[in-house]
Amino acid sequence: MKAVKIKDVLQNGATNSSCVVQGWVRTFRANRFIALNDGSTIDNLQCVVDFEALEESLLKQITTSAALELEGTLVESQGSGQKVELQVEKTTVLGASDPEKYPIQPKKHSLEFLREKAHLRVRTATFSSVMRVRSALAFAVHEFFQEEGFFYVNTPIITGSDAEGAGEMFRVSTLDPKKPALNESGEINYKNDFFGKETNLTVSGQLEAESYALGLGDVYTFGPTFRAENSNTTRHLAEFWMIEPEMAFYDLNDNMNLAEKFITSVLKKVLSRCEKDLHFLDERFDKEEKSKPQLERSPMGLLEKIKFVVENDFKRVSYSEAYEILRNSKPNKKKKFQFPITEWGVDLQSEHERFLVEKHFNCPVILFDYPANIKAFYMRRNDDEKTVRAMDILFPGIGEIVGGSQREERLDVLEKRIEEMEIDKEELWWYLDLRRFGSVPHSGFGLGFERLVQFTTGMNNIRDVIPFPRTPQNASF
Ligand code: 4AD
Ligand code: MG
C-alpha cells in the first residue's frame, strides 16, 4: 500500500479504511499512543499500538524522533480532538533514534537554543509552521506576478557592479588569499583572478532587471542577495531573499500602487491557505507578547495585524511631511530618540520609522520623495533638485519592508549624479546604454522576503524565518 500524507488522512480519511503513514515520532505515551508527524501539516496523527502484540525489541525503538512506517485501520478517534486515529497493525522502524541524545525534547526550547540545532529545528511545531508559511508566501509571490503578466527573470548572483553603492559586498575570487598577484602599485591584480576583474556577490538584481524591463515590459526577480553589513539586528541577514519587480512606463505612483496591491494580495492568499499554521502562530504570538512588559506589547494579535494590513489602505506621506511630524513629536522634544531629528535631510533610523508606523499613523506607511543625498544614484531627481522619487514601505513591528523608486531615465542627469557620487562610470557603461537607446520612465522596488515572512509569522528574529541564517560570525550548517 502506498503511504499517504497525514494532512490527507486528517482531512479525508474514512473510518474503517486501511492506510499507511510515514513520519517521525513526536511523543510516545503509555507504551500505546504515538503522535506521528510527517511535516505535511502542523497536526500529529494519533496512532495506537498494541504493545502486548509487539516484540520487545521493536517496542524499544518507538521513541521520540524515530522514523516509522505505520500500517493499520482508521477508526473514530476517542478524544484526541481529531476525527480519526490509526489503529496500528504493522509497525516498521525506518530510522531508529537515540532519544537521550536527540537534542529536541518534547518541551519548550528557546529559539536561541534551536538556532544552534538548525538542522533539526524544522521538526518542531513552530519552525515547521514558519517554513510552510514561507513556502506558501513564495508561491503566492510568483502567482501574483504571473497573473499580472510579469516575466520572471534570473539576474546574476556574481556581479561586477555595486547596485546600491553601499560597498557592503562579499568578494568572489579564486586568487590565493596568502599570495594574491599584485600589480606595480602593490594592489591586488584582478586581471589574474577568475573573471579577470573584481567580482562580488550581488546586493540586488535591480540594475539587470532594469535592462530586462526595457525589453520585456514588466519583470520580477526573486533570488538570494548578499550584504556584508555588520548589522547584528533582528532585521538583518548577510544572505537574504529579495523580490524585485521592475516595470517600464511606470511612474512612482504606479509603483506604490503595485507594491500595495502585491503585499495585500499575497497576505490574503496565505490567510486562506495557511489557516492552521497561522492559527498556531497567532496563539504563539499572544503568549510571547504576554511575557513582555505592557508598554512593549503589540496592540494587535498576529492574525488581527495581517487582516488589518489587508483591509486598510497604506498611508502615503512625503519625507518632508514625515520630517515635520517627527521634529514636532513628543519623543523628539523630550530627547527620547537616540538620533534626534534636527534638520531636513537626515536619514530616518528605525526608531523614527517605528514611531511613524506604530505610534503616529498606526498603519503601514509609504514614505516618498526622500532627500537625494541619502538615496542611491539611480533614483529619479524631482524638479526641486533636492529630492528623488524614492519610496519606502514601513510595517508595524518590522520597519522598512520595501525600498524602491522611479529610476532616472535621463542620460545627462544620471551621468551627472554618477560623477557627483564618484561611482565608477566605466562599470556602468551598459546601464547608461539603456538611457541611450529608447529610454523610458520606469520604476521598481525590492521587498525583503524574510521581513515579509517575519511579519506574517510574528517571529521576532529574522534568523528564525530562514532555514539556515547567515549573520556576522555565523555560517554554520
Ligand atoms: O532598500 P534596499 O536596499 O533596496 C534595494 O536593494 C533596491 N535595489 C530595490 C529595488 O528598487 N529593486 O533593499 C530592499 C529591501 C529592504 O526594504 C528590506 O526589506 C530588505 O530588502 N533588506 C534586507 N533584508 C534582510 N537583511 C538585510 N540585510 C536586508 N537589507 C535589505
Ligand atoms: Mg532601503
Features:
OB fold (Dihydrolipoamide Acetyltransferase, E2P); 31% helix; 16 strands; 477 residues; five-stranded mixed barrel; binds magnesium ion; BirA Bifunctional Protein, domain 2; alpha+beta; binds 4-amino-1,4-dioxobutan-2-aminium adenosine-5'-monophosphate
Give an account of the 3D structure.
- This protein has 477 residues and is α+β, with helices and mostly antiparallel strands.
- The chain has three domains: 6-102, OB fold (Dihydrolipoamide Acetyltransferase, E2P); 123-167 and 204-464, Bira Bifunctional Protein, Domain 2 (BirA Bifunctional Protein, domain 2, 2-Layer Sandwich); 169-202, no CATH class.
- The chain is 31% helix and 22% strand.
- The protein contains 14 helices and 16 strands.
- It has helices spanning 6-12, 56-60, 111-115, 125-147, 206-216, 252-273, 275-290, 302-311, 319-327, 330-333, 350-361, 411-420, 429-433, 449-457, and strands spanning 18-29, 33-37, 45-48, 67-76, 84-95, 151-152, 158-159, 171-172, 199-201, 218-226, 239-248, 315-318, 365-371, 387-395, 399-406, 442-448.
- It has an eight-stranded mixed sheet, sandwiched between helices. Strands 1-2-3-5-4 form a five-stranded mixed barrel. Strands 7-9-8 form a three-stranded antiparallel sheet, with no helix packed on it.
- The mean pLDDT is 95.
- The structure holds 4-amino-1,4-dioxobutan-2-aminium adenosine-5'-monophosphate and magnesium ion.
- The site of 4-amino-1,4-dioxobutan-2-aminium adenosine-5'-monophosphate has 23 residues, from strand 11, strand 15, strand 16 and helix 14.
